[in-house]
Design a protein that fits this description.
191 residues; alpha+beta; Alpha-D-Glucose-1,6-Bisphosphate, Chain A, domain 4
């Protein structure tokens, strides 16, 4: 499986670099991560509980950082064993570049799975991997750079939305129907 992408994070490159090397921040961001411990400045151990399709497993693994070029780039490689569920191994190249007062993080991931996981099929593995990566980067971006700003809708658009809500609320439709029905009955009752 290969995956690549980029994320804009509302923080300085030095802040993003520090967070990428902080086991507590990474533990909070990795979906299903139960433990992540630093063994040395470049080695960590991890325990992650995941469900991929019908397969549930707890993976115990090792993570190693290499090709360090602080605060610009590094390579992260890891492997985990999920017992009868199988194994996962892979790596990612991560590159940080300044973009105004924010940081652009680019990543290229290559991963391989075996055992029962490999029997699930590439499409399920790929879609689950993309979902997990999105969850990681969303959480990482929020923890490091704060929540993404919400664009305010123009005032006219807000008024139109409120008017549309009134037109589609079931209670408003029901009251209109009752008025119409009363008028119809009134017309039938007149001689």
């Amino acid at each position: 499986m290969d995956m690549s992408g980029e994320r804009r994070i509302a923080a300085s490159r030095a802040t993003v670099w520090a967070a990428l090397n902080d086991p507590e921040i990474l533990r909070q961001c990795i979906p299903g991560c139960e433990a992540l411990e630093m063994q040395s400045p470049t080695d960590m151990t991890a325990r992650v509980k995941l469900q991929i399709g019908p397969v549930r497993a707890t993976f115990n693994g090792k993570v190693r950082l290499s090709d360090l070029d602080p605060p610009t780039s590094y390579r992260i490689a890891g492997e985990g064993n999920g017992g009868v569920a199988g194994y996962a191994k892979g790596g990612a190249n991560v590159v940080l570049s300044e973009e105004g007062d924010a940081t652009l993080m680019r990543y290229d991931v290559k991963a391989d799975v075996g055992g029962k996981l490999a029997q699930l099929g590439g499409r399920l593995i790929d879609s689950t991997s993309k979902k997990l990566a999105d969850e990681f980067f969303e959480k990482f971006s929020t923890l490091v750079g704060g929540p993404a700003p919400v664009a305010a809708a123009p005032v006219d658009a807000q008024v139109d939305v409120q008017a549309a809500k009134l037109d589609t609320e079931p209670s408003k439709k029901l009251s209109w129907f009752k008025r119409w029905f009363s008028r119809q009955k009134g017309r039938e009752a007149r001689p």
